[in-house]
Write a structure and sequence with these properties.
The protein is an alpha/beta fold. Helix content is 52%, strand content 10%. α4 runs antiparallel to α7. The structure holds iron/sulfur cluster. Iron/sulfur cluster (SF4) binds next to α7.
C-alpha cells in the first residue's frame, strides 16, 4: 500500500497535490484554501493573464511602421522575462545584436547586465522583465537622431508597464528615465536618487553600455543594484507577512 501511494504521489506536481487535497477536503465540507489563505490558482492566474495581455500587445504592434525606424530594423524587440516580475529593467533601444536576435540586451552590454542581475540573485528568464523605450533599432544606435520615435513608441512601453505592474522599475540610462518622468536630465545628475512613477519605485542607474565605456562608474551602479536587492527583499518580506 505504501509503495502504491509513493508512486501515485511521485507523479503529481505541487499544483496536483494542492488540488487533490483541496478537492478531498472540500468533499468533506472543509475548504482549507480559505482557512490557510492559500490559493494556488489566485497566484498563477494573473501570470497567465499578463502573459496573454503581453502577447496581445505584441500582436497590436504587428509589423509597426509608426515611425521611420521600421525602414532599417531587422526585428522588433518587444521584451523578455517573467510577466509577473516585481521588477522591470528598461533600456533605450535595441542595438545590432538585439535587432538581429529580437531580444533586448543580448550583446556585450546585455552580458554585463546579466552578470549584474546575477550578482543580486536575479535572472532575465525567471524574475525580471526587460524592455526598451524603442522597439526598433535606431541606425548606428543613435537614439539622438530619431527624437520623433520616442513619443510614437512610448505608449507600447507604458502598456507593458501597466500589464506587468512591477513594484520597482530600474531605468538603465537617461533616455528611459526622461521618457517616463517627462524630463530632460543627465543620468549623472539623477542616479543615486529614488523617484516615484505612478506609485512604482523608480531607480535610475547607468546603462550597461556606459559602464563598458566607463568602468569606473561600475562602483556606483553596484550601489544602485544593492539598493534594488534591499528593496526586493523588503517587498518579499511584506508579501509573506
Ligand atoms: S520604434 Fe516603435 S513606433 Fe517606431 S517602428 Fe519601431 S515599434 Fe513602431
Amino acid at each position: 500500500m505504501k509503495s502504491y501511494y509513493n508512486s501515485f504521489f511521485s507523479k503529481l506536481d505541487n499544483k496536483d497535490y494542492i488540488d487533490f487535497f483541496s478537492n478531498y477536503l472540500r468533499d468533506l465540507g472543509f475548504d482549507y484554501r480559505k482557512f490557510l489563505k492559500l490559493d494556488y490558482k489566485s497566484k498563477q492566474e494573473p501570470c497567465k493573464d499578463k502573459k496573454l495581455l503581453l502577447e496581445k500587445l505584441r500582436e497590436e504592434i504587428g509589423d509597426c511602421k509608426r515611425c521611420d525606424l521600421y525602414k532599417t530594423r531587422t526585428n522588433i524587440v518587444f521584451g523578455v522575462g517573467n510577466p509577473c516580475s516585481r521588477i522591470m529593467f528598461i533600456g533605450e533601444a535595441p542595438g545590432e545584436e538585439e535587432d538581429l536576435r529580437g531580444e533586448p540586451f543580448v550583446g556585450r552590454a546585455g552580458r554585463l547586465l546579466d552578470k549584474m542581475l546575477e550578482s543580486i540573485g536575479l535572472s532575465r528568464r525567471e524574475n525580471v522583465y526587460i524592455a526598451n523605450v524603442l522597439k526598433s533599432r535606431p541606425p548606428d544606435n543613435k537614439i539622438s537622431l530619431c527624437p520623433e520615435s520616442i513619443p510614437k513608441c512610448l505608449p507600447f512601453l507604458l502598456k507593458q508597464i501597466e500589464i506587468i505592474s512591477p513594484k520597482i522599475i530600474c531605468c538603465l540610462g537617461s533616455v528611459a528615465v526622461n521618457a517616463l518622468l517627462k524630463q530632460n536630465e543627465q543620468i549623472t545628475k539623477i542616479r543615486g536618487k529614488i523617484y516615484d512613477y505612478n506609485g512604482i519605485t523608480l531607480i535610475p542607474t547607468y546603462h550597461p553600455s556606459y559602464l563598458l565605456r566607463n568602468p569606473i562608474a561600475k562602483k556606483e551602479a553596484w550601489e544602485d543594484f544593492k539598493k534594488i536587492k534591499i528593496l526586493l527583499k523588503r517587498l518579499e518580506e511584506e508579501e509573506n507577512v
